[in-house]
Amino acid sequence: MTAPSSHGSLGYTTDLPLESMYRHARAARIYDGPDEVHKVTVARRILRRYEARDVPTEHVPTRRAEAEKKFAHLLDTTAINS
Q1: CA torsion, ordered 52, 35, 24, 5, to nearest 10 deg
Q2: Helix segments in 1-82, DSSP class H
Q3: What is the sign of the dihedral through the CA atoms of 28, 30, 35 and 39?
Q4: What is the pLDDT of residues 15-73, one digit of tens each?
């Protein structure tokens, strides 16, 4: 990990606590585990509470054929005028 340019070499010396913070942050990446592991753990916890729901009656993709039959005369008129 490199020091930000706003702190220059002070990120590498022990004059400020910044060097210690960098050192501990770098070690934390190792002992804390990869981010992917955390994402998977959170996703599993969320999905445990998931309950499948029925498709609502107003769900458009499942009612498309019925709607096209009902409004066929309007669709034909629109297609002719286009």
Answers
A1: -120
A2: 18-31, 35-48, 60-70, 72-81
A3: negative
A4: 778 878 878 877 776 766 667 788 888 899 999 998 877 766 677 777 788 888 888 88
Please report, for the chain, the start and end positions of each structural domain, with discontinuous segments joined by +.
Answer: 8-48
What is the C-alpha separation between 51 and 9, in angstroms, rounded?
54
Give residue for tokens 């009656």.
Answer: 57
Residues 6+ apart with CB under 8 A from 26: 1
Nearest to 4 by CA among 22, 28, 23, 25: 22
pTM: 0.29
Which two tokens mark 14? 């022990």
Sign of CA dihedral 18, 19, 25, 31: negative
